[in-house]
Amino acid sequence: MLSKNMLAEMNEQIKHELFSSYLYLSMSAHFEANNLPGFARWMRLQSQEELEHALKFFDYVNDRGGKVVLQAIAQPQVEFGTAETIFEQVLEHEQFITGRINTLYALAVKEADFASQVFLNWFVNEQVEEEKNATGILETLKMIGDRSTAIYQLDRHVGKRGED
Ligand code: FEO
Q: Residue 53 C-alpha to ligand 1 middle, in angstroms?
């Protein structure tokens, strides 16, 4: 059985993961509208991953005898700047999510909730990956600057996500 505090934090996390999915889908729509189909696909896959993250928490809460209570999800941003500023936002958002996972982990340690620590380990590792991926693309975009040919090539490259 999850503690009352842990249940509340996990339900809160489901909201954050669903919002992440919504935010990245909105970024995907932006890239679609701006003729960058590779970035659009990358964001769409990212959005799907976030939905899977939310469902992992959903299943875990149920497995531990808690009740999932879905919360309202805010409208995501709909107007965005350059690809570089978007990936800056992605990195900032992932750093926020890492902070959330750390909060949950710290609570699990405080409550000696070992099952939740094991469950959260997957997310600790995932956040390392998430920040690394966002940082990698952001660094490349910074190198490219506003050279449109290079952005076009990078778009084709990131659009191959999941194919290898
Ligand atoms: Fe669910 Fe991108 O962290």
A: 7
